[in-house]
């Protein structure tokens, strides 16, 4: 679908919008005067959205400074480093499901029987603790790598 939109013909308003974006890039010092002239000429000669988009593909959105662009990249890199790997997320999901089922079954047995019922779900703390240690180690290694 994106390919269909890019191959659609551009209107004069679209060409003016790209020319305005190029003017902002010139004013911010992102383009030299020669580059600006070439790109504006190409913008007004463009027939499709794809031709227009290639003229501004290497430019950040108007008003963004290089520091803001770098800050966004750094924030995204940190967010990716904090994200838990899929394998660990699956293991935590399995452990939580097993723990929930065991606690519910133990609770039902404890309520429906006379006398003391051994709290067997406590044994799920052992693999849970191991999983917690592994998760901490993996996240620590990922943080050091980035």
TrEMBL record:
The chain crosses the membrane at residues 87-108, 120-138. Residues 8-60 form the DUF1707 domain. Keywords: Membrane, Transmembrane, Transmembrane helix. The keyword Acetylation does not apply. This is DUF1707 domain-containing protein. It comes from Mangrovihabitans endophyticus.
């Amino acid at each position: 679908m994106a390919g269909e939109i890019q191959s659609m013909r551009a209107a004069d308003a679209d060409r003016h919008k790209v020319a305005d974006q190029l003017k902002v890039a010139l004013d911010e010092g992102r383009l030299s005067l020669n580059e600006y002239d070439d790109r504006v000429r190409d913008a007004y000669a463009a027939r499709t959205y794809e031709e227009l988009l290639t003229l501004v593909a290497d430019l950040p959105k108007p008003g963004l400074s290089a520091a803001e662009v770098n800050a966004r990249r750094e924030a995204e890199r940190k967010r990716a480093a904090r994200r838990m790997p899929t394998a660990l997320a699956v293991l935590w999901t399995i452990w939580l499901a097993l723990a929930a089922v065991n606690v519910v079954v133990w609770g039902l047995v404890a309520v429906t029987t006379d006398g003391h019922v051994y709290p067997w779900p406590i044994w799920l703390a052992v693999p849970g603790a191991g999983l917690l240690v592994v998760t901490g180690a993996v996240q620590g290694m990922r943080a050091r790598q980035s």
